[in-house]
Queue: 2 jobs
Job 1
Amino acid sequence: MPIYEYICPKCHAKFEQLRPLSCCEEDAECPRCKAPSGRAVSKFVSRSKSDFSMLDHMPSGSGGSSCSSCSSTNCSTCG
C-alpha cells in the first residue's frame, strides 16, 4: 500500500496515511481537527543509472580510492 500525503484546509496540518490504491482519490480525515482533507502534491527523488554507477568510482574517506589495492586518488588510473 502506498503512503499518501494530505493537507488539511481547516487547520493546515500536513499528514500521511497508508491507504490502498482504491482509496487514492478519496479525502482523508485530518487527525488533528477531523476535517476532510485532500491529497497534497508529493515530492520525490529520481535517480538515473549513471547516478548509481558513480558511487562505484568515488573515493571512500579522505583521500585514496575505494579499491583496497590502489593508493591513487583518481579512479581513472586504476586498471
Job 2
Amino acid sequence: MEPSVSRIPIKFIVENQGEAEGELIRHLAPRTVDSIVKKLPIEGRAALWKEEVYFEIPVRTGEEKPKPNVEKATIAYWPMGSALCVFYGESQPYSPVNVLGKVTKNLELFRQVKSGTKIKVEKI
C-alpha cells in the first residue's frame, strides 16, 4: 500500500492472536479520521456485537456523514460509544457510525476475538 495523505495504512494487533491490516480513508469522515490518526497508537479491550468487534478509544467526536448500514470489512467510529468498530461479517451497527475505511488483510482474525481481548491500532 502506498501511503498518502488521503489513505492512512494501519495495523490491528490482537493480543495473542495476530495482526490485521487496514486503511483509514480521509474523505469518508475527515474530522474523525484526523482525530484518530493524531491519537495513534491506541489500544482498548474488545467488546462484541453480532459480527462486529469494537472498543472504546480516547477520541470524542460527533456524527460525521453517519451511516446506519455498513459493508463487511468496514472500519468505523461509533459516536454513541466513542468506539472504533470493525465489521467482520454481515452485521449492522447498533446506531449510525462514521465510516472510516476498510480492513484490507486478515479480516478473519476478528472472528476469533473474545470479549476483553486487548487490541492495539497503529500506523504502518
